[in-house]
Design a protein that fits this description.
The complex is a heterodimer of chains A (338) and B (616). Helices cover 30% and strands 19% of the residues of chain A. Chain A has 338 residues and is an alpha/beta fold. Chain A has a domain of 219 residues: Rossmann fold (3-Layer(aba) Sandwich), CATH 3.40.50.970. Chain A has an 8-stranded mixed sheet with strand order 2-1-3-4-6-5-11-7, with helices on both faces. Chain A is globular and about 95 Å long. Chain B is α/β, with parallel strands linked by helices. Chain B is built from 20 helices and 25 strands. In chain B, helix 9 packs across helix 10. The chains are: A alpha/beta (338), B alpha/beta (616).
Chain lengths: 338, 616
């Protein structure tokens, strides 16, 4: 049991550690760190019940900078480590900090299997479309033709569409946000915390050293209006300051001009509708469609992994374990030598 | 009818047939009945890597070897007294280990033209019809036909009727060794509870086999093997994987901590997963992960949260886990890694036994990454060694690798049941409940250099750990050159200090005055013990040391080895422990090595030792 609420109250200031934050000046990671630190005190859970588990990469230094419990694990495996922790300690709030290389390349297998199993983890995927820690190689989210140290002639790999991948793996919560939008981030992180099941939040994060301006089209004051669309549950899909909307023709999304069309023609966002979520994840390699931000899909009906396990264990719980164990040793036919 | 009986001290039987013939079940039934009777016994199942290799072929042969006697039985036996061959392929595969004048019980239907062809034997070369088996006592019995006739009243259909033939053979062998049918009859009735006509047919086949022995004059003798003298107490039969699972479970109960098994199926380790996943009532969580790496990583996550993290695998899987084991070493968390070794490298020989992962266990990670390595020496020894692995991991906050192998895992022996109150207590170093102000230093050490682990959820103990080098005491990231050297040495010293709690090494046989010392480790215990016993009886002066603790070794090992001029190291690999012995104790040891996916024969070890003795 926790102590009284008054003792467990903490502030963002209490989350600071004695470790100097060592990301490059201007890195998008700072903004994400601040947003997370901002919302944690509001969640109603004591500080010592938060755990941040990361893999390897720039973003994975994150746990050192938050004064909760934390583990900086090995490349790609944070989701697996976190799963083991969450199964055994369901009362903890477990967060996974990962990047596009960590989660989608070396840790791709663990990511999809974590999503299908649905432990109540909050995964923050810092997507900067580059390998930063190893100083600038292309990543599984880098665009075709990208010139990097390892692709001097341009990358020929087609990139992942991360949220489509996650939805394909039966994720129960997928959302997208941006390092430059603190308010939006905080809303999404709170929702990720609330969701019972694995929450996958893709964060467009600028690497100002190796991949600067990668997301300018979504963050620039003017460009973001035409290139981004902010999702709200049960609201019609509109963007460009309400001048444009998305209409579904069958399963095909199309941009309509709201000066000529009624807003009633627009697709209405329903974060519980998986078919619509699939359509929204495909607003990706199509320059005509704006990129969605917000909660694309949320399914609260699926059981979490840890609950499933706990139910099985509770159902067959043995009270006197020692007595029962000794009997177990003799369940196979035994004999006595006198 | 005949009443001639012959008294024997020990007998080796090999049941062999197609992998669909129920050979393992037959062997296990004979083993249990014989153990119940009071013989000592050792068994060795030998099955094909393929689940259902083509019927009747050599790769499809499944075997079950058992050795029973009226004194302590160390091994499943080098050569068989009796070979039961249900088809031509089974005979072909096993004949070379049948003793001269040994008994062959051959199923004639299994040697028809089709079966000969499948076994790649020319039709004109049927071994039952030429003189190739003249040096053996061959009993040609049409087991298939006799079984079908016996079970005809139950109208089972051709295939199902034929399937009862293993029970016919078992009944016959029961008659031959004067054994009761009761145990197996009960088993059949239980096993086929839902299908009484199949149950009845199997019981009838069993009885028909027995009666066939009784009424025909096929066999000149019936044999008797007296009970073995054993210490009073309750006994059961147990194989290595079962014993391993029970030992882990016992440790979890006594430590009062949940056991978390993070693993991935792999031969020959999967049965540990199967066994532990049955025991959720004890709070055991078995997590079948997406791969080996996730298995061990989840176990590390569970350890971090204050549970007992366990991962089980075989060599190829251990290779994949190496980086995560390094993480556990750096985090100084308790973790148990169980390697049921098989023939390697790569996929190697999945169902065969080998001890070739010792170097992998000792050194197979990047950086200076020592961990505790222990190895049970018999099937039943897995129980206490598994328990010890968890005890050491928790009390010393260190990863422990326990090395079993295919032979230990699948072979069985009678075990004097050791109930849980007879096992030592276990203390963990987890801090879970404290209201102290935050003065916690994650890498402050206890006398044995273990650290106290504040688990997440403990108020005022928030801290961060990770795979980057730690600053001594504080656990903060540190790139300081001297600190790194200090930490490398501290981690090594922590492992070395485990030796202080280990039992001192004893001679299994002989003493420091003996002329030659043979050192073994792990599953070779039985073969080496039997060989040394025989050599001592023959007048030779031999000592035997069997290592169960390989890293660190017991404190007195150096002193024990020092006086010997002749030291031999027997192991099922190309020479691995021998390098450690040479390295640590500067002994010019001589290797006895076998790398055939099979345990040592007693004779092989005897010959190797005799060669050295005579060489002098």
């Amino acid at each position: 049991m926790h102590n009284s609420d008054s003792i467990d109250i903490f502030t963002s200031k209490d989350l600071e550690t004695n470790q100097e934050v060592r990301w490059c000046p201007g890195c998008g990671d700072y903004a994400i760190l601040n947003s997370v630190k901002k919302i944690l005190p509001d969640l109603g859970q004591p500080k010592h019940e938060f755990v941040f588990i990361s893999g390897i990469g720039c973003s994975s230094r994150f746990p050192y900078y938050v004064n909760t419990y934390g583990m900086h694990s090995i490349h790609g495996r944070a989701t697996a480590v976190a799963t083991g922790l969450k199964i055994t300690r369901p009362e903890l709030s477990v967060w996974v900090i990962t990047g596009d290389g960590d989660a989608l390349s070396i840790g791709g297998n663990h990511l999809i299997h974590t999503l299908r199993r649905n432990p109540d983890l909050n995964i923050l995927l810092f997507n900067n479309q580059i390998y930063g820690l190893t100083k600038g190689q292309y990543s599984p989210t880098s665009e075709v033709g990208k010139i990097t140290k390892s692709t001097p002639f341009g990358s020929v790999d087609l990139p992942f569409n991360p949220l489509a991948l996650c939805l394909g793996a039966n994720a129960t919560f997928i959302a997208r946000t941006l390092d430059k939008d603190a308010k939006h981030q905080q809303e999404i992180y709170k929702r990720a915390y609330t969701h019972k099941g694995t929450s996958m939040v893709e964060i467009y994060q600028n690497c100002n050293v190796f991949n600067d301006h990668a997301f300018d089209v979504f963050t620039d004051k003017d460009l973001k209006l035409i290139n981004g669309i902010y999702l709200e549950h049960e609201k019609p899909l509109t963007f460009d300051s309400g001048k444009k909307g998305i209409k579904l023709i069958g399963l095909q999304p199309d941009v309509i001009d709201l000066e000529q069309h009624s807003i009633d023609e627009c697709m209405v966002h329903d974060e519980n509708d998986k078919t619509k979520a699939f359509i929204l994840t495909q607003f990706f390699d199509n320059n005509l469609l704006p990129r969605p931000f917000g909660i694309i899909y949320c399914d609260n009906t699926k059981a979490t992994l840890e609950n499933g396990i706990k139910e099985q264990i509770t159902a067959v719980n043995i009270k006197d374990k020692k007595l029962s164990f000794n009997a177990l040793l003799m369940t196979k036919s035994f004999w006595e030598v006198c | 009818m005949n009443n001639s009986k012959k008294q024997l001290r020990d007998v080796v039987i090999k049941f062999a047939g197609d992998s669909g013939d129920g050979i393992q079940l037959t062997g296990n039934q004979f083993a249990e009945t014989t153990a119940l009777f009071g013989n000592d016994i050792a068994t060795f199942p030998d099955f094909p890597a393929e689940i259902r290799a083509p019927l009747g072929t050599v790769p499809g042969v499944s075997g079950f070897q058992l050795h029973f006697g009226d004194a302590h039985i160390f091994t499943p036996g080098d050569e068989y007294d009796v070979l039961v061959a249900l088809n031509a392929a089974a005979l072909k595969t096993n004949l070379k280990f049948l003793k001269p004048n040994g008994i062959i019980i051959a199923n004639v239907s299994g040697f028809d033209n089709k079966n000969l062809r499948l076994a790649n034997i020319e039709e004109t070369e049927n071994p039952l019809e030429n003189d190739s088996l003249n040096n053996f006592q061959v009993h040609k019995i049409d087991i298939t036909k006799l079984t079908k006739i016996a079970v005809a009243p139950y109208n089972l259909g051709n295939k199902e009727s034929e399937r009862c033939k293993n029970m016919f053979v078992l009944g016959l062998v029961y008659w031959l060794y004067h054994r009761s049918l009761d145990k197996t009859t009960q088993f059949i009735e239980q096993h086929f509870k839902k299908d009484p006509s199949v149950a009845n047919a199997n019981v009838i086949a069993l009885k028909a086999g027995y009666n066939f022995g009784e009424t025909t004059e096929t066999f000149a003798y019936q044999y008797e093997v007296d009970k073995a003298e054993t210490k009073p107490g309750l006994y059961r039969s147990i194989n290595g994987n079962q014993a391993m699972a029970m030992g882990f479970l016992a440790a979890s109960i006594n430590a009062e901590l949940p056991l978390f098994l993070g693993t991935y199926p792999i031969t020959p380790a999967s049965d540990i997963l199967h066994e532990l996943s049955k025991h959720k009532g004890y709070g055991v969580i078995s997590f079948q992960a997406e791969d080996e790496i996730a298995g061990v990583s989840a176990a590390i996550g569970a350890s971090y949260g204050g549970s007992i993290g366990l991962t089980t695998s075989s060599g190829p899987g251990i290779a994949l886990k190496a980086e995560a084991i390094g993480l556990a070493t750096m985090l100084e968390l308790p973790l148990v890694i169980c390697n049921v070794q098989r023939g390697g490298p790569s996929t190697g020989l999945p169902t065969k036994t080998e001890q070739a992962d010792l170097m992998q266990a000792l050194y197979g990670r990047n950086g200076e990454c020592p961990l505790v390595v222990i190895a049970p020496s018999t099937h039943s020894d897995c129980y206490e060694m598994a328990y010890t692995a968890i005890k050491i991991a928790l009390e010393h906050t260190v990863p422990v690798m326990i090395l079993s192998d295919g032979f230990i895992a699948n072979g069985a022996e009678p075990w004097k049941i050791k109930t849980i109150e007879h096992l030592p207590t276990i203390q963990s170093n987890f801090i879970t409940n404290s209201e102290e102000l935050n003065t916690y230093q994650p890498y402050l050490r206890n006398a044995n250099l273990s650290r106290n682990i504040a688990v997440p959820g403990t108020k005022n103990f928030e801290h961060r750990i990770g795979g980057l080098e730690k600053e001594n005491i504080s656990g903060n990231i540190s790139y300081e050159p001297e600190n790194h050297e200090l930490m490398v040495k501290l981690r090594a010293e922590k492992v070395e200090r485990v030796a202080e709690v280990l039992p001192l090494q004893k001679f299994e046989n002989g003493n420091e005055m003996s002329e030659l010392l043979i050192i073994g480790w792990g599953s070779t215990f039985g073969s080496i013990s039997a060989a040394v016993n025989e050599l001592i009886l023959e007048g030779h002066s031999i000592a035997h040391i069997h290592l169960k603790y390989i890293n660190p070794m017991p404190l007195n090992i150096g002193d024990l080895i020092k006086p010997f001029n002749k030291v031999m190291v027997a192991e099922l690999n190309n020479g691995q422990l021998i390098r450690v012995i040479r390295d640590k104790y500067l002994k010019d040891a001589i290797g006895i090595n076998k790398i055939q996916g099979q345990p040592f024969m007693v004779k092989e070890i005897k010959d190797a030792i005799l060669k050295q003795i005579n060489h002098a």
